[in-house]
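Checklist before submission:
- one chain only
- standard amino acids only
- sequence pasted in full

Submission:
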Amino acid sequence: MLMIFQRPAFIALPLVFLACSDGGLPPEYRQLEVPESRLSSAEARRSGRELFLAHCALCHGEKADGVGRRRNLSSRPADFTDPFWRQRVGPRDLYQVIREGVKGTAMPGFKALSEAEIWDLVAYISSVAEEWSPRDRSD
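Returned file contents:
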């Protein structure tokens, strides 16, 4: 039973992502329309990657594997390459965390980003676990 707590992806983000359903989100995010075509767009994913490198890679790493240059954070950044993580997190969850941040952690909110930019980040981050197979990871 303690094995799950040893998974880096589990400790990467607080309990915010444990309830994968939209029911755990504030009402304004539960009703947020998810632009499915944008999330699967290669252009949005490219734009999201650029935004990720500019705003997220310092903590989450250039490979989005949770191993960034910034150390000594209050909690380990999410490893977006982990399919286990990806199965638990939906697009609305990601949007809300990017927009609002996570209280009590080093994860800030990015309210200065536009809605389109946040959805591009969601598109990129959502695609990362699909792109990296376990043998591609250097643990």
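Reviewer check: Confidence is low (pLDDT under 50) at residues 1-20, 133-139.
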